[in-house]
Amino acid sequence: MLKLENVTKYYGDFLAVDNLSFEVKPGEIFGLLGVNGAGKTTTFRMIMGLLDPTSGVITLDGKNIDYDVTDNIGFLTEERSLLVKLTVKEQCLYYGNLKGMSERKILERMDYLLDRFGISDYKDKKIKELSKGNQQKIQFITAIINEPKLLILDEPFSGLDPFNTELFKDMIVEMSNNGSMIIFSSHRMEHVELFCKKLVIILRGKSVLEGELKEIKEKYQKKNIFIAGDITKEQLEKITGVYQVVERASDFEVKINDSSIVPNVFQEIKNNVITKFVVEEPTLNEIFVAKVGESFEK
Fold it and tell me: Does the pLDDT of residue 295 top 60, yes or no?
């Protein structure tokens, strides 16, 4: 288990992380979210052992983070961290050696992963000769070449087309099923919703929302109703409790203050020809924007 307990980090007088606590259990995919500058990168670096907390404790399986422990961690950074003049094979050997792997094990694992991602032919190509998407594949491969117990993914789908995004997703889910702890960070909330059952949103280094995603959505009162039929936007906007109506290609997205408004909306439109009436929980993106905006105003 990865455990952060009351972790705080100052850079001089600047408070980057403020009393942050959370835990990630084996097999969990945990979302660590925040706007740019919220403290995510500092948190990642402390988990990696690259920075020491000013106060608080970070442990992995009950041990403080040191070079022995970091051999069990993989990190995919948002920025490119590849050595572009090396070949793919040389890059894998370099990262594998840093993780204490034997050359035989590195090459076995590399061949498996290159084949898994459909780029076996690129083994002897230099990194700079690869497309952006294939460079992202190599960066991911080097992050997981040591079969890490803990994997940190910061914007893992950057530069990927939908097909290759699916390859990454399959690998992430497989690693989770095999017991890896995964911290997933992305500005694409739909990606977070695909994987993460638990999450924390930080702002100015401090948690502003945390818990099970399902419970967070249930507690967030505002809902969305998707309606299609013989009805106009103006009719929907006049209904008490409706605070916004978004006209889409084939239906209307009706935003309401809470679930108690649903029967009222239905009563108001039931005499129209309605072909679609679906009540859905708000998206994580809506909750994120609302919560971060609310915290900025305080």
Answer: no
C-alpha to C-alpha distance for 251 and 224, rounded to whole angstroms: 12
Identify the CATH assignment for 221-280 out of 3.90.120.10, 3.90.170.10, 3.30.70.980, 3.30.360.10: 3.30.70.980
CATH superfamily of 2-212: P-loop containing nucleotide triphosphate hydrolases (3.40.50.300)
The DSSP element (H or E) to which 176 belongs, if any, is helix 162-177
Contact between 202 and 20 (Cβ < 8 Å): yes
Q: For residue range 167-213, list pLDDT tens digits in order.
A: 999 999 999 999 999 999 988 888 898 889 999 999 999 999 999 99
Give the residues across from 106 on adjacent strands. none
| 157-168 mean pLDDT | 89
For the chain, the distance separating the N- and C-terminal CA atoms, rounded to the nearest angstrom, is 34
